[in-house]
Design brief:
alpha+beta, Glutaredoxin, Glutathione S-transferase Yfyf (Class Pi), Chain A, domain 2, 2 domains, 6 strands
Length: 237
């Protein structure tokens, strides 16, 4: 069996990063293939993308689309998907929330419109982006952080979201924590798609996380994992 190949935009983390973290944590070999926008359009127009979206994962000639499906496949390979059906459903619930949060976040930057029967992204005006980002951090993200804290506190004296060992759901939360950290590179580099001088308004994610000791502790546990630590050093957010 050949190594699975994960396709995403060059230097992009986004919806592909959860699958990367799972593969890396589980010591599963994979090929991380970044493509240009021109290559993306070529793949889309030639019918290689089942839903005309990235990421995709190719496994021995079979193409898997949709970020949650790819991450779930990776989690099962890595032993990070629970065998218990109820716990499995709980992790699905959390990863679905991960996707919902990212959908709202990306919606701060772009408006999805249909053009000639194809879904396209239209960039929002800078003022609108900033207003929507301020609202996102002050409401959606803050609210979900408190929900995640409550889930950990209900998890049988465990530092994890579901059960007594780390699952793909914990890595989904970790991905969000890293993405929305105010020190992440995507906020500071003017050439990036996500650059905004101050996307938070009066809200500061690090200050909020310090108020949530269980979320903070989970993040520390994952960061201290040697394989994750090495990955973050060479591929910072």
């Amino acid at each position: 069996m050949n190594n699975p190949i994960l396709f995403y935009y060059n230097d992009g983390k986004g919806r592909a990063e959860l699958s990367r973290l799972i593969f890396i944590y589980g010591d599963i070999s994979f090929e991380d293939k970044g493509i240009s926008f021109q290559e993306y359009f070529q793949m889309r127009d030639s019918g290689q993308l089942p839903f005309e979206q990235l990421p995709i994962l190719q496994v021995d000639g079979t193409t898997i689309s949709q970020s949650c499906a790819i991450a779930r496949y990776a989690a099962k390979k890595a032993g990070l998907y629970p065998n218990d059906n109820v716990q499995a459903a709980q992790t699905d619930m959390i990863v679905d929330a991960w996707r919902d949060i990212l959908d709202i976040f990306y919606g701060c930057y772009v408006d999805r419109v249909v053009d000639n029967g194809r879904l396209v992204m239209k960039m929002r005006e800078p003022k609108v982006k900033l207003e929507k980002l301020n609202e996102f951090f002050d409401t959606t993200w803050s609210m979900h952080l408190r929900r995640f804290e409550k889930m950990i506190s209900s998890s049988s004296n465990s530092p994890f979201l579901v059960g007594d060992s780390l699952t793909w759901a914990d890595l989904a939360l970790f991905d969000l924590l890293c993405t929305f950290d105010e020190n992440a590179n995507l906020w500071k580099t003017e050439s990036t798609f996500f650059y905004i001088p101050d996307p938070y308004g009066p809200y500061r994610p690090s200050a909020e996380i310090l108020k949530l000791p269980l979320v903070n502790e989970l993040s520390k546990i994952i960061k201290q994992t040697p394989s994750i630590k090495t990955w973050l050093t060479s591929h910072p957010y």
